[in-house]
From TrEMBL:
Record InterPro entries: DUF868_pln
PANTHER family from the UniProt entry: DUF868 FAMILY PROTEIN, EXPRESSED PROTEIN
Name of the protein in question: DUF868 domain-containing protein
Source taxon at top rank: Eukaryota
Length: 335
């Protein structure tokens, strides 16, 4: 009997290394034409959900959601803490706020304890030298840390290690084990999206490009026609590239507005799902045509079913961990 990987490989696209491609073609490995001048859509917010296992509190699991947002008038950070009863207040940092005009500091969120657990939560941050790309999330020169009791529950940023040594180490005796469960991006603009994703812990960061074209003959256009009878209009199509290698090509998108396909990334099985129904069938007459959703979800090679199908059992925790990561893109197409 063949192993599950070889069975999937017959119908799945493998992305194991970067492919060099300089122009669009009709082949499976086609990628975007560098001569196109379309500017990718803007990321308005990025949310990451982390699971932190606290060793100082009988391995209590704390869910932490970190959200970066950006608009024309301000830019901010929100951190929420789940699995708390009663729920802990969220941490909010608005760069235009008087209270948080300093981009470096700390804030005690809650301080109480009982016989069952300690719920002192403190947030430390340093965004004074943070550098940003096109989105709301800093790319380097920053750190954000969450302390629960005397334990570091979460720390992110490229200067995190230095900060732990100099500032947080005296206050934190131990560091919890934390992992990224999901990432969600909200975008708006045209129908060209570029981002990066890491599908496993300590894995390689991959460039992702999602492009929808056709309908009126323009690349990345935000206006589509449901009619495919005219020779002047090419039917809308969807292309997804990872590291300049095409992993999905969907023709006649107005009829194939929902679907899924399995791909391989770094040896992992990844289900790629899309839903662009509202782009074509939104009853609203407003310029905004609703959200499309694109999802990447990893799963174990031992599981032959799609992640959205009911799973009656999981053999062990390792398999459960392998199934947990998901990356969602909510794309709003505007005029």
């Amino acid at each position: 009997m063949r192993d599950i990987i070889s069975c999937f490989s017959e119908n799945a696209v493998n992305v194991s290394q970067q492919a060099s491609c300089s122009s669009y073609s009709s082949s499976t490995n086609a990628c975007i034409n560098p001569s196109l001048t379309t500017t990718p859509s803007t990321r308005n917010s990025v949310s990451s959900v982390y699971k932190s296992t606290l060793s100082n509190n009988k391995h209590q699991i704390l869910m932490i959601t970190v959200t970066w947002c950006k608009s024309f008038s301000n830019q901010g950070l929100t951190i929420t803490f789940g699995t708390q009863d009663p729920p802990s207040p969220p941490f909010r940092l608005n760069t235009n706020s008087r209270f948080f005009r300093k981009k470096k500091g700390s804030k005690l969120m809650v301080e109480s304890s009982d016989h069952h657990h300690e719920s002192r939560i403190e947030v430390f941050w340093d965004l004074s030298n943070a550098k940003y790309d096109t989105g709301p999330e800093p790319v380097d020169g920053y750190y954000v840390a969450v302390l629960v009791g005397s334990e570091i529950a979460l720390i992110i940023g490229d200067i995190a290690e230095e900060s732990v040594t100099k500032k947080l180490k005296p206050m934190a005796a131990t560091s919890a084990k934390f992992s990224l469960l999901s990432r969600r991006e909200h975008c708006s603009g045209n129908t060209l999206y570029t981002t990066k994703a890491q599908f496993c812990e300590n894995g390689t960061w991959h460039d992702i490009m999602i492009r929808c074209s056709g309908g009126n003959g323009n690349e990345g256009s935000s206006k589509y026609s449901l009619s495919s009878s005219s020779s002047l209009l090419s039917p809308p199509a969807l292309m997804v590239c990872i590291d300049k290698k095409t992993v999905i090509r969907v023709k006649r998108l107005q009829w194939n507005f929902r679907g899924n396909q399995t791909i391989f990334v770094d040896g992992l099985l990844v289900d790629l799902l899309w839903d662009v129904h509202n782009w074509f069938f939104n009853p609203s007459s407003a310029a905004a045509a609703g959200y499309a959703v694109f999802m990447f979800r990893t799963r174990s090679g031992l599981d032959s079913r799609l992640w959205l199908q009911e799973k009656t059992c999981l053999k062990d925790n390792k398999e459960k961990d392998a199934l947990e990561f998901s990356f969602l893109i909510y794309a709003c197409k505007t005029a």
